[in-house]
């Protein structure tokens, strides 16, 4: 199996027919702003290379973002925040992500999502998340160099941990990591290299428009990820409860 093959399987996936119908209908009706665009309207594949040391886990494609452009975090409000944050942290080739052919690419990172189809109201069901999980499992099998995982939003953070736990990873205390912006946990697995799990608020408009998430806050998470990924001898220490709880726990 190769990442190219996994991407092909994602695009062709029909595990959730209700989501395929929803995405196709969005592509048919379109948004007035994008009335002349040809929408992707299918499951959105991940981007990045197999030698990536940083794994970024989002929630799902936006109805008029990834579902329109065919690339994750491209052409919507979230992309307008995520792309410059990644670029400023040295993890992307340019600070904009507007079209699938615009030259935006990740550097040393791989971007995936808990769900590959845009869900109604941006709220996936547990059944849909479970049906989509095999795609991320297949990707993790092909990403041997991952040192750091960044979960965007509580769902992205929790799904990232669930997939790592399946591979034998756990916190030093054995407790489930608690999501917060800036939360940091070292996960260990017998006979494997430690992986650091970081949390960040999702760069959706309900966070960015309200000031809950600022560009410096987002950039700091990716700069921390870049620093950890560049260090082959990550110190195995779990951040204090005080640090982990300093950021407010939010659902998004």
Task: Write a brief structural summary.
Helices cover 37% and strands 11% of the residues. With 252 residues, it is α/β, with parallel strands linked by helices.
Could you describe the 3D structure shown?
- The chain has helices spanning 3-11, 17-29, 66-69, 77-88, 126-141, 153-166, 205-208, 215-229, 241-246; strands at 47-48, 54-58, 109-113, 148-152, 184-187, 195-200.
- Strands 1-3-2-4-6-5 form a six-stranded mixed beta sheet, sandwiched between helices.
- Helix 4 (77-88) packs across helix 8.
- It has 252 residues and is of the alpha/beta class.
- It has one domain (3-246): 3-Layer(aba) Sandwich (Uracil-DNA Glycosylase, subunit E), CATH 3.40.470.10.
Task: Please name the defining characteristics of this protein.
252 residues; alpha/beta; Uracil-DNA Glycosylase, subunit E; 6-stranded mixed beta sheet; 9 helices; globular; disordered C terminus
Number of strands: 6
The number of helical elements comes to: 9
What percent of the residues sit in helical stretches (DSSP H or I)? Answer: 25-40%
Structural class based on helices, strands and sheet pairing: alpha/beta
The pLDDT mean sits at 92
The fraction of residues assigned to DSSP E strands is 5-15%
- The SSE string, one letter per element, is HHEEHHEHEHEEHHH
Largest sheet composition? 6 strands, mixed
Low-confidence stretches: 233-252
Q: What would you say the CATH architecture is?
A: 3-Layer(aba) Sandwich
CATH topology: Uracil-DNA Glycosylase, subunit E
């Amino acid at each position: 199996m190769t990442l190219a093959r996994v991407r092909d399987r994602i695009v062709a996936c029909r595990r959730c027919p209700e989501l395929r119908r929803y995405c196709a209908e969005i592509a048919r009706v379109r948004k007035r702003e994008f009335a002349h665009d040809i929408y992707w309207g299918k499951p959105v594949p991940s981007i990045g290379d197999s030698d990536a040391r940083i794994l970024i886990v989002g929630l799902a494609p936006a109805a008029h973002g990834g579902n329109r452009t065919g690339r994750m975090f491209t052409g919507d409000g979230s992309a307008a925040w995520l792309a410059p944050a990644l670029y400023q942290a040295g993890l992307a080739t340019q600070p904009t992500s507007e079209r699938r052919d615009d030259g935006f690419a990740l550097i040393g990172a791989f971007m995936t999502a808990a769900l590959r189809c845009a869900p109604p109201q941006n709220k996936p069901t547990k059944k849909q998340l479970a049906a989509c999980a095999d795609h991320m499992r297949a990707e993790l099998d092909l990403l041997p160099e991952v040192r750091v995982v960044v979960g965007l939003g509580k769902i992205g953070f929790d799904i990232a941990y669930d997939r790592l736990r399946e591979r034998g990873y756990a916190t030093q205390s054995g407790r489930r990591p608690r999501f917060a912006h800036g939360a940091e946990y070292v996960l260990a697995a017998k006979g494997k290299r430690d992986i650091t799990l970081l949390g960040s608020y999702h760069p959706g408009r309900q966070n960015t428009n309200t000031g809950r998430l600022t560009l410096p806050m987002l950039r700091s998470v990716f700069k921390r990820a870049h620093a950890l990924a560049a260090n082959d001898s990550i110190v195995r220490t779990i951040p204090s409860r005080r640090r982990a709880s300093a950021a407010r726990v939010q659902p998004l």
